[in-house]
DNA sequence: CTGAAAGCGCTTACAG
DNA sequence: CTGAAAGCGCTTACAG
């Protein structure tokens, strides 16, 4: 039944070193006031000398678990071309550090979700809250997460209920402002390359586009909008079709920068110049955006801040503090070289 | 002394549900053969019904710890413009999943390193191996990591010793091939924008540059090399100076794509055309590279594969399998639009 | 101010 | 094939 101590020094070692009980060591290390300054000092010295640190697992078992917040994301893409996830991880990590809680990265996919239910995952990993990014509404976890009573912040997804909130920007307003900018630049025939049909965000961005047009008394043309699935290549194909069918279009509002890049390629192939003949406006301000084609005009989001917001919201819920059910973060229209006044 | 069970169901609950001891449940769940098929089946059903999963912390304490490999990296940058770290995380995570071990992300900086020694961090977090990226030679952890007997893979850093290996590409050869490509294109006056002076990688890439020139009997000009610190803006300044002092230069070899971008900006400001007047060759093939200036000619690295290699090497060391002390991964010269034959 | 002891949720030798 | 019990490294009521 005995197991080798594996050479790791434990609280027992520092207790022995100092000549006190492990109880006292534990209390000294946890900053309790009922330890004499003198023993406390000796303990701290011994800790230093032995290079000791309490095992987080054991602490957790003992009842002093650090709060840990997990980032649950669907399979990481080959390349994070838009740099979004990286920024998000970065921001959330920072926020967790600042709050003194642990960060945990969890990547999931359909297969993994079959094997281990969300409840089981929670039990196994012992996290206290989760921020979710890129989960699809048809993922098994989707329902489970929403029904669980764990504090949870969702990226760009509508939610309701206790201990739940969503992190997003005001997509409707952002899109509206972007399109209004095009309108102010003299454009009237404005096409839109939207994201995925099933994505909440796509609906909202289309809503903003429609609002801007109607508000400017520009008649809405349903066939001016195409779905590009947030993909460069799909956007290329769709933009080409759209422009061939509607050569009167002089501006393209794209729901992502990658799609804007695809659209610009399509326009070039059609012999149209950007922005002289056609203006193109993107969304996200991915790192590439400022470098491509003398810079893409776009709506900037702030992934780091969004990550921080996610971490913070979950932490607050953990602490029993109230949190808005929808946290809208700032965005910003960045005007660069792919848009111009209509000629 | 009693603590509330907090509602979490434990192994005791499934034991009670089935009517066996927790010993039996544990053994069934761990796949031991000495449990009758019948009880095993009942246990599995109960597990399903109760949505039970063993607490990883408790398992670890009990002696059945999952191997976990940590990625230790210095402070995450604002933006991972080169997408390298993201790819690395991604690859390492995948590899860990494939190997059935846990992945843990650890971000550190000078302050954190002061507060907690590396040995303490190990004890606290209980990881069994670590891959290190972006640690500086003057970081407190640098020595500690090298002296620890924990399996450890270092990115782009020379190491020796048991349980240590480095993950890298053959920088000398890669650079040499890149410069040879420029030479074959007719260039003789070739400048170099190097990275950080103190970085191992910079020395190696310079070595390759020198080798290519000497081999082609092109006299080496020491003042053709400038340090750009891997930064776009520094490279901009240095490239400008270099070209003003040496207008005879017709090609620039840059130790990173971001520096190539800075260099190209500088050339444009000087009224020089790329690649007509001056060819520019980068390094890394960051996501941006293919989009900027009709595409930067560059040496491609494979961050995902490097991450995988790191995770695999550490795992092998953990398993007692032999590992080369230096793992050289593939690279690839990608010819795009910023280089051309000398006019 | 300090220590002996129970408990956290597991695993595993040992004895049947 | 199965179970009682010790142990992993901590924390914390409780008693002094």
Which ranges of chain A are low-confidence, i.e. pLDDT below 50, for 5 or more consecutive residues? 1-5
> Helix proportion of residues of chain A, in percent?
40-55%
SSE string of chain A, helices as H and strands as E: HHHHEHEHHEHEEHEHEHEHEEHEE
Determine the mean pLDDT of chain A: 92
Structural class of chain A: alpha/beta
Q: Tell me the radius of gyration of chain A.
A: 26 Å
Total helical segments of chain A: 13
Major interchain interface with per-chain residue totals: A-B, 48 and 48 residues
3D architecture notes:
The structure is a homodimer of 343-residue chains. Chain A is an alpha/beta fold and 343 residues long. In chain A, 43% of the residues lie in helices and 17% in strands. Chain A contains 13 helices and twelve strands. Chain A has a six-stranded parallel beta sheet. Chain A has a six-stranded mixed beta sheet with strand order 7-6-8-9-10-12, sandwiched between helices. The radius of gyration of chain A is 26 Å and the shape is elongated. The N and C termini of chain A lie far apart (85 Å). The N terminus of chain A is likely disordered. Chains A and B meet through helix 4, helix 5, strand 2 and helix 7 of A and helix 4, helix 5, strand 2 and helix 7 of B. Chain A binds a DNA duplex (16 and 16 nucleotides) through helix 2 and helix 4.
């Amino acid at each position: 039944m005995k197991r080798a101590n594996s050479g790791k020094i434990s609280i027992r070692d520092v207790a022995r070193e100092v000549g006190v009980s492990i109880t006292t060591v534990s209390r000294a290390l946890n900053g309790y006031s009922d330890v004499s300054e003198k023993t406390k000092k000796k303990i701290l010295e011994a800790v230093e000398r032995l290079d000791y640190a309490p095992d987080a697992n054991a602490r957790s078992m003992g009842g002093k678990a650090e709060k840990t917040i997990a980032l649950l994301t669907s399979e990481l893409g080959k390349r994070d071309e838009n740099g979004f996830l990286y920024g998000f991880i970065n921001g959330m990590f920072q926020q967790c550090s600042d709050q003194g809680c642990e960060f945990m990265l969890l990547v999931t996919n359909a297969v993994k979700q079959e094997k281990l239910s969300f409840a089981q995952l929670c039990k196994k990993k012992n996290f206290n809250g989760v921020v979710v990014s890129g989960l699809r509404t048809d993922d098994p976890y989707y329902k489970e997460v929403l029904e669980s009573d764990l504090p949870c912040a969702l990226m760009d997804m509508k939610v309701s209920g206790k201990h739940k909130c969503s992190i997003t920007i005001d997509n409707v307003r952002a899109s509206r402002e972007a399109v209004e900018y095009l309108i102010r630049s003299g454009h009237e025939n404005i096409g839109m390359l939207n994201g995925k049909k099933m994505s909440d965000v796509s609906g909202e961005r289309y809503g903003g586009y429609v609002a801007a047009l109607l508000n400017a008394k520009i008649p809405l043309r349903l066939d001016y909008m195409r779905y590009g699935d947030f993909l460069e290549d799909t956007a290329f194909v769709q933009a080409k079709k759209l422009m061939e069918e509607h050569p009167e279009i002089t501006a393209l509002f794209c729901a992502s920068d990658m799609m804007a890049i695809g659209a610009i390629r399509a326009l070039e192939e059609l012999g149209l110049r950007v922005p002289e003949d056609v203006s193109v406006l993107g969304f996200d301000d991915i790192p590439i955006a400022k470098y491509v084609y003398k810079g893409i005009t776009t709506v900037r989001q702030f992934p780091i801040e969004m990550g921080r917001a996610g971490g913070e919201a979950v932490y607050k819920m953990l602490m029993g503090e109230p949190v808005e059910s929808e946290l809208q973060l700032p965005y910003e229209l960045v005007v660069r070289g792919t848009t111009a006044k209509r000629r």
